[in-house]
Design goal:
By secondary structure, the protein is of the alpha/beta class. About 30% of the residues lie in helices and about 20% in strands. Strands 1, 4, 5, 6, 7, 8, 9 and 10 form an eight-stranded mixed beta sheet that branches.
């Protein structure tokens, strides 16, 4: 990323004027590993580069107000705290001088946000001055804090904001820039006592609940990392998965999201150890074929903690958009390859279960929103074979805009139609790197003519995309006949003679 403007001087804001009666006591004062929520959020903003840091409270003389006065640079009192956090933000904005180019808003119930995340937002703000609102994401999910540029301050001061600052964020998606930060803390809204106790080192997940969560999340298209502390002397984790005991009191945690970088369920015993575990999960999930095993993580006092780690991926899927003649043999081949096959078409007479006995799902859809009821994830292989080029292209654009993208996107079509597709992608603003993800014309060059032969060519290409290779016949690559049927002189001359 190239910087295009001067450093972004931004303030930080923590709304802490809520009653939070569900907790039994004010959220701002609740301790997490001994540090109150309010202190954690203020320090994350300050260490991330925000100045000044402002906190809104109901009463500067109560316990929250006094704590805020000791930690923040300024404390404000909203005129009508019943309106929610927006009232505090509106009380804070007039205290910013003209030299403040933005405001980073971090709710007090997000105490796990890292200072590095705040820094990343400010860095992105420096590099992209045209982005008026910046929001962090983790594993494709948006969270807090949010950076508002000064240009939108007048909108934040409006009286009729039904959803507070969220109303301003949702007005124009084009001016919102999302930044992947890999910080699960942006998603951790500690809104109930259970949330707090879980992140504060509460008893770990039960094995039964962990196993159920793994099944649920992988079915939803997420990759899940299971981490579990091992009893002293337990050097290997073979068989120590979600269903194993691994000692009484063992910590157990799931890290999940498209890249196992999203939400966190459970705990290894402390927030510091959880952060180490999340980092380890992010490394493990990028390995081509991660094997279950144990790793050492730094624990309290520098003591090494042995942790079992296992990665669970969603099942490989084949989504065939279009239920025509090619789809039938292709669905059968997808099932033989061990994929969960989904067939989509808008014609009820074509999208019938009896035509696709090998498919997991056969859905009649509206091509205006074809993937509404279908999960597309990084292990999905999507084949576009609808009855019309317009439908293929509209589906293709939706797929190319997905984050994360599917593993494979193949589109049928003649050379002329494929050329027209790529020309249109360029006109619609897609760059060469994005267009290169499209396999079109679809299939390997095997001279296929019938629907079944075309399906074989497509299935072969999907295998090539999954496993790697060249598609070259092994005969031509190995040239065994050439080497061993040659004359003795030719073999000696080429180095293939006896003793070579």
């Amino acid at each position: 990323m190239t910087e295009t403007g001067p450093p972004l001087p931004a303030a930080g804001f923590v709304p802490a004027a809520g009653l939070s009666s569900r907790m039994g006591s004010p959220k701002a004062l609740l301790p997490l590993d001994g540090v109150p929520f309010l202190v954690r959020t203020v320090r994350a903003l300050r260490r991330g580069g925000c100045s000044p840091v402002i906190v809104s409270v109901r009463d500067p003389g109560d316990e929250i107000g006094l704590l805020a006065l000791s930690e923040a640079d300024r404390v404000v009192v909203p005129s009508d705290p019943e309106r929610g956090p927006i009232a505090g933000l509106q009380a804070a904005l007039p205290h910013l001088g003209p030299d403040r180019a933005g405001m980073v808003v971090l709710p007090v119930d997000h105490p796990l946000v890292r200072a590095e995340t705040v820094s990343a937002l400010l860095e992105a703000g420096r590099a992209a001055p045209e982005s008026l609102i910046l929001q962090p994401t983790c594993g494709g999910r948006s969270g807090h804090p949010v950076l508002f540029r000064a240009e939108v301050f007048p909108e934040l001061m409006e009286e009729d904001l039904e959803e507070g600052a969220r109303t301003v964020v949702r007005r124009d998606p084009e001016r919102v820039r999302r930044i992947e930060v890999g910080d699960p803390g942006i998603l951790a809204n500690l809104d109930t006592p259970e949330d707090v106790t879980r992140h504060a080192g509460a008893p770990p997940l039960t094995a039964k609940r962990a196993a159920a969560a793994i099944l649920e999340r992988t079915a939803a298209g997420d990759t899940v990392a299971l981490l579990q502390t091992l009893a002293p002397g337990e050097a290997t984790a073979a068989g120590a998965g979600a269903g194993a005991g691994a000692g009484a009191g063992a910590g157990r945690m799931l890290v999940y999201g498209p890249g196992a970088e999203g939400a966190v369920l459970g705990s290894l015993g402390s927030s510091a150890l959880d952060e180490e575990g999340i980092a380890a999960a992010q490394v493990a999930v990028r390995e081509p074929a991660p094997s279950p095993g144990s790793i050492g993580l730094p624990g309290p006092g520098g003591k090494e903690i042995r942790v079992f780690i296992e990665i669970h991926h969603p099942a490989d899927g084949m989504v065939v958009v279009g239920a025509g003649h090619i789809a039938q043999p292709l669905a059968r081949m997808g099932a033989l390859l061990g994929m969960e096959v989904t067939i989509l078409d808008d014609r009820p007479e074509w999208a019938r279960r009896d035509r696709f006995p090998d498919a997991s799902k056969v859905l009649q859809v509206d091509f205006d929103d074809p993937f509404r009821d279908t999960t597309i994830h990084p292990r999905s292989h999507v084949v576009l074979v609808t009855r019309g080029h317009r439908y293929d292209y509209e589906c293709l654009v939706r797929l190319l805009r997905m984050d994360p993208p599917p593993a494979y996107i193949g589109m049928i079509g003649s050379r002329r139609r494929v050329r027209a597709t790529f020309a249109q992608l360029g006109a619609d603003g897609f760059g060469p790197d994005v267009a290169a993800r499209v396999w079109a014309p679809i299939g390997l060059d095997i001279g296929a003519q019938t629907p079944t032969e075309i399906a074989v060519a497509v299935a072969g290409e999907i295998i090539l995309a999954r496993r790697g290779g060249t598609g070259t016949p092994l005969r031509d690559r190995e040239r065994v006949a050439d080497r061993f049927m040659a004359s003795d002189a030719e073999r000696v001359g080429s180095g293939d003679g006896e003793g070579s």
